[in-house]
Structure formats: C-alpha cells, structure tokens
C-alpha cells in the first residue's frame, strides 16, 4: 500500500467542514489558516477511541492481507494523518512526508532524466546547490543558475523541449531575494509546457506562502524548520496538486524508502498545530529587529523593510515577511565577533526554531559553495543571518545591541544621544592599525627579508636520528621580497630556479581543503597531506620540475595555513640567493625561513618593533652583525613555520638547518622526539675559525639522501647505530674543545681537524659521499695543503667543508682555489657564525632614501645626499631586486636601510 494518492476524491485545503452559520442568510465562511493549523481533523481517518491527539503507530508491519496499511515504508496511519494535515494547510491535494528537506528535493530531482535541463536560482541553499551539482555531474542534467529575482533572466534559458524543471526559492536564503513565483510559473508554462515548477517554500512555510496557489507544480519544505518549530526532528514535506506527479513522488518514496517515521510524523504533526502562533510572534519581532538594524545604517535584507527592492512582489504572493533576515557589517572580522558575542541568539545553522539563531552563512550553511562561486553570486563574506525566535523581543534586541557594541560595529554618539554604526572605512582603519600594531607602516607593506645558509660541521644525517649536530651560519644568504598585489592574485618568482614565475587567483585555491590555524595555534607536527595532494593535483599540476612545484608549494601551503578568515591579501614573493641551491649549504632552509617570515608578516602574525630613529648624520652603517631587534618569541614562531616549509621541501628534516638560518651564529642542535633533551644551544668560539667551502656542483636531493640513510638504518640497524653513536661522540668532543678556555689555539685546530676527518669517514660508511667529494677531500689533504675536509649537509654531491688553519697563507690559499676551480669545482672562502634572519625595517625613518644610497659596487656612499627631488623612498624594491647581479645583491640590500636581526 503506497502513500495516499487519492485521485478520485480530490481534497483541497480549505474543505474542513466549517460550522453551520448562525443565520440562514449568512454563508459559511472558510476557516482561517491559523485555525486549520491547530485543528488536526481527518474525516476519513477517525480514531477508533476518539483520541484527541493522533496516536503513534510505532509499527513496521500491519497484519492481514488487503488492508489499508501493510508496511510502514509504504504507508503508516500516523504519517497519513500528517500528510493529510499538510495538504490541508498547503492548498494541496497531495502531501508526502519524508526524512528531511534534502530527501524531499532528492525525491523531486529523481524525476529528471539525462539530457534534461534545470533552471535554478543563483542564491540557493548550499545543500540544494550540492545536490544539484551531483545531479549535473552524475545524471547528465544541465543546470542553469540565474537571478530569479529578474523573471526576464529565466526566459533565455528556457528550452521548450529540454527544460524539465525550474527550481525556485522565495525569499532566498540568506539574501532574502524575491522571485515572482506567479509570473515565473506563467512564463515557464507558456514556453515549456512540460516543465515542472518546483518551489522550496521552507523560508515561508504554508502559513505565509502557498506557491501552489500561484501556479507552482510541486512545493517542498524542510519541515525541520518552521513546520516543526523546535529543532527536535528532521523532516521534509512535498505537496502538489497534479495527480501524475503525485504518483511519481509516491513511487519514489516507496521505492527509495525515505518516508518519515511514525514517531517523527507525530512530532511534526504536533509542531504544525502551533505554526501560526509561532510565526506571528517571530515575524513581529523580526520586523522590530530589521527596523532597528536598518535605523543604525546597516544594509539589511528583509522583505518587510520599505526599501526592499521586491517588496511589492512579495506582498502579492505571500501573507507575511517571515522571520529570517540578514545584514552586512562591512567586515568579516566584525561579523565573526558579533556572531560570537551574542548570548540569546544561538550560533547554529538551520532556522525556524522557537529559539533565535545567528550565523554567518559563508562559514556555516553555505560553506559547501566554494568562495569564488559565493563571490560570483554576490554572497557577502561578512553577511550575518538572523533567524528570529519567540523570546521576548526586548531581550533579543538588547542582546544583539550588546554584541554589536562589543564587536565595535556600533558606537555611542553623545551628540545624537544614541548608538550609531561605525562606518566600514573606520573599521578598516582600526583593523589596519591593530593588525600592524605600529604607526608608520603602510597597510599593504612590502617586506624584504633575508636569512643565511649554514654549514654543518658535525652530525649531518645523524641529527635526523637524534644525534647532536653542530652547525653555523654562513655569510651567503637567501633574500625574499614580498610585494603586495591588488588584483586578487599571488605569484612567485624564483630567480635561482630557471627564473621561474607563476601566478594563481587566490580565490581559486582549494580553500575548502584547508582549516587555517588561528594565531594562537601551532601547526601540528605532520603536514596536511590531503591539502598537499590537492595542491599538487590542482594549482601546481603541469609544472616543469619538482623544484618549481615544491618551492611554490611552500608559499601556497603556508599562505593558506596562515590565512585569517576573510583576509586573503594578494602578493608576489621573489626569492634570490647568493647561496648555491642544492649544494648542502642550506639553501632550502634559508629559502624556507624567508618565505615563512614574509608570510607571517603579510598575515600580521608577527610584528616588527619600532626602533628609535638613527642618531647620526643619516647614513647608517649596516652589517649582518647589526642590531638584534627581533624578539626571541617572534624568532621561535618563525622557526616553527620555517620547519614546516623545510618538511615540504625535505620530507624528514631534522630542523637544524632552519634553526641556524633563523638564529644565526653557531649552535648545537638536537631534534625532538628521541628521548634525549632536545633543543638548541649556542656555541661560542666558532666565529674565529676559517672555512673553505667547495661546491662539487654535483646535483643531489637532500630528500632522497635522508630517506636513503633512513632505509639503511632499517636494513642494517646495528651498523648504522654504531655509526650514529660514533658521530655523537664526535659532536660532544667538538663542543668540549670549543668550550675549553684552557686549550691552546693550535690544539683546538688540530682536534677539530681530526674530528672532521673522522666524521667524514662515518658519512662515507653511511653511503652519502660521492667521488667528486672524495676528489675535493684528497686534493685539500694533499701536500702542500694538508687540510682536513668533510662533506657537509646531505652529501651525495653538494659541498665539502675544509678547516683552514690560522697559518695558512694567502698565497697557498690562492693556489688551492685555483686548483679546485681548474677541476671545475666552486670554492668559497666564507665567514661563519654571522647573523640569522634579518628583516629590513619597514619604518620610513629607517630607510635610506634612494638618492642617498650608494650605487652597488661603490664603496663609500656620497657624503652630501643629492636633492630629494621627485622620488624619496622606493615604491617597490622589486625591479631592482630582480635585476641586480648576484655579486651586488648583498651590498645593495644592506644599503637599503636598517636591518633588524634575530
Ligand atoms: N632561492 C631559492 N628559490 C627557490 N627555491 C629554493 C631556493 N633555494 C632553495 N630552494 C628550494 O630548496 C631546494 C633545495 O634543497 P636541498 O636539496 O636541501 O638543497 P640545500 O642543501 O641547498 O638546502 C630546491 O630544490 C628548491 O626547492
Ligand atoms: C642531511 C641533513 O642532516 C642536513 C641537510 O642539509 P642540506 O639540505 O644538504 O643543506 C638533513 C637534516 O638535518 O635535515
């Protein structure tokens, strides 16, 4: 037995017998809808005991053959009562109750066949949108989204034979746009007679709007909302007057088995009895709330307001304005504060409950629509939706007002003696000041940062497995320049990686896959692999090399993870290094440090302190030994994010490289998680040592080499463990000799040389050397040089480091350099232990005016600055930065102004 499809005795809504008229001259007038709602009466289904409330037939089956009911999936007396009642209040001859509003839509959409076309609104409920997208992607159905507030926009999409369904909502949720249901139904029927006009009437309920009366063919409601009214059940109802449609609907419900359960049918029936009284109260308060917000100057969407553009249409097709409204604050952040600040208004999705609710559609009910589509459909990110309940209206207004005050959306104006709205530009200004926490920095600031590479003296590879590494910064650096963009794009320019440049539309990044981390939260130890995969398959697909994609991935991943809701500033990030990339000198760590710092600054997660202006004649002497002005807490935050970047580039890094890059100097580093006390400890005495770094120019991948050692440890655990133990002893010994004040310089150097040789032999045993590195080691060890050399960093190519004794003469060094170069190696004489991360001070007073700056290559800047004519400060450093030769880069950077160091 299927749900009741009574085609013979068409029962229309207002046919509940009305009382006999008092006078034979007066005709019987139909009952009002509120009476109908409250009166559950089905003359065909009288209760055997006369129970005044419909009983719950909590049974799956019914005994006997040929009875009215046999199986609850197909029909149940409690549900029949409900369906009869719903039909009565909806001007319908057929009603069906199913398990949710989406189930109702699903039943309706199953009428579609491949090739059919659907016309739907562009401001639909997110769930509707999702199901429509499914039907489009899997059912071969074409969906046109149009602005249904303008009936003429529908006409061009109507195809006389293909348009099978027109899906409307009025008012729409959450923008409260109105579709002229009557006019659209007429236009559609004239042009595509077979098309079915379907209306989602959830926002109104049958009490306020009955679209079947205006020519719609099928109406559905999420009965979870007003019909039930208490948020204690999920249900959907479908009503129609056309018998053949009713048959199809009944068939699908029976076949799919999503009819409403007896208990929920009972609850819903109970809820419907109070529909009118609830909505009367909710509407009255909504009107007060809308008027209040409107009077404060907010843009309010509510069809009851005089300035609603479709007010007249709405009045014609409905009996009231409903109890949902929305308004814009001008700032997503402010909106979030308001939503989080109310007490009576509960934060919740859905609506229609007796309790008042507040939400931000873009982050809640409509989050399933991607941001770009939301923007295209004009859904403001700062929109707040209010669903008014039955609480006391004064209480509700008080609560809302307090939240508006606390959020800074309104302020008391003593002249007017009332609260007034804080204008959006004032909010923006406040936000900018708050964000930067420093007066003189422009809202959209260019940030120039730099970080050093490193040389590992002892303990590379072993450090990944918990051994102490000893490493120092080198005076070769990576520079990163972040320049704001105002076109909604982010771009990267990597001069050192085939001059790679690429840009992305920020809104098209997979924001749905990212849960940004709030300022007080750290990134978890593991990378967000699903996001990485999504990025590699999407925005980063088809890039020429993995170097390009992983370096880009660092920027996109960090940007997305660091983003704050509603703040997605466009930017370009250009990186250039005076370091060889991929040579074991920590180019990846210095790149990671620059990227993390620039993005943390862009997102205002960190601030730079304001310093007193330079005291001297205007020219500042800047060096990497410069002012230590970046507080340790900021440095730690940067180091945590640089480590995340390193994980992207390296897989399983120890963290020593980025720590050196951020903190500079020389340090002993132990990775977390090996039962030993992890941490970073500064080592003195390194700076006085001289090292020669020689790049073998053999390319290799740190990621693979680290993974290779990891595999060896699994295959030959005893051998590798003994090597790790031996390397730990070397690191401990190196620290001891470096810290020993009693030791003569000569003994120190001899001890270090021996430790270098020993460490190298263990690295050879770990399998990470290379014939080219061995050639460098042999050359430097041979007479007359007699020097000690080891590979440094991941090995497999890359660089070797050679300790240079104090008595090693310049001439001999020249010979060695010449010999190494002749063998096609690149030797660098470098100083170690210099400053870590630096940020060029953003304050104008710390910048050297362009006219006063030395031309790169010129040793002394001009004594008397030229006239400051047109240009005082650079608008952007980008053109110079990108074209400067590598040999001039660091001098040029230093001349720009005051650098602040960790
Ligand atoms: N200046 C740079 N610009 C862009 N990416 C860089 C830069 N320097 C390093 N990288 C990234 O780091 C990777 C090099 O890492 P790695 O093999 O560990 O070399 P290194 O030993 O120099 O750190 C590069 O492939 C690239 O992805
Ligand atoms: C091999 C290793 O110890 C150092 C890597 O140095 P580089 O990437 O070769 O500069 C790995 C690490 O510590 O993360």
From TrEMBL:
- Catalytic activity entry: an S-substituted L-cysteine + H2O = a thiol + pyruvate + NH4(+); L,L-cystathionine + H2O = L-homocysteine + pyruvate + NH4(+); (R)-mevalonate + ATP = (R)-5-phosphomevalonate + ADP + H(+)
Q: Where in the cell is it found?
A: Cytoplasm
Q: Does this UniProt record's set of keywords contain Signal?
A: no
Region entry Disordered, spans: 1-30
User: Which EC numbers characterise this protein's activity in its record?
Assistant: 2.7.1.36, 4.4.1.13
Needed cofactors, names only, are: pyridoxal 5'-phosphate
The GO terms describing molecular function are: ATP binding; cysteine-S-conjugate beta-lyase activity; metal ion binding; mevalonate kinase activity; pyridoxal phosphate binding
Protein keywords = Amino-acid biosynthesis, ATP-binding, Cytoplasm, Kinase, Lipid biosynthesis, Lipid metabolism, Lyase, Magnesium, Metal-binding, Methionine biosynthesis, Nucleotide-binding, Pyridoxal phosphate, Steroid biosynthesis, Steroid metabolism, Sterol biosynthesis, Sterol metabolism, Transferase
Q: Which family does it belong to?
A: Belongs to the GHMP kinase family. Mevalonate kinase subfamily.
Organism expressing this protein natively: Marasmius oreades (fairy-ring Marasmius)
* Stored Pfam families: Cys_Met_Meta_PP, GHMP_kinases_C, GHMP_kinases_N
InterPro entries in UniProt: Cys/Met-Metab_PyrdxlP-dep_enz, Cys_b_lyase_euk, Cys_met_metab_PP, GHMP_kinase_C_dom, GHMP_kinase_C_sf, GHMP_kinase_N_dom, GHMP_knse_ATP-bd_CS, Mev_gal_kin
* Ranges of residues in domain GHMP kinase C-terminal: 749-807
Name of the protein described by the UniProt record: Cystathionine beta-lyase
Alphabetical GO biological process terms: 'de novo' L-methionine biosynthetic process; isoprenoid biosynthetic process; sterol biosynthetic process; transsulfuration
Q: Does the keyword Lipoprotein apply?
A: no
- Identify the metabolic or biological route this protein is part of: Amino-acid biosynthesis; L-methionine biosynthesis via de novo pathway; L-homocysteine from L-cystathionine: step 1/1; Isoprenoid biosynthesis; isopentenyl diphosphate biosynthesis via mevalonate pathway; isopentenyl diphosphate from (R)-mevalonate: step 1/3
Segments forming domain GHMP kinase N-terminal: 564-601
Could you state one GO cellular component term attached to this entry? cytoplasm
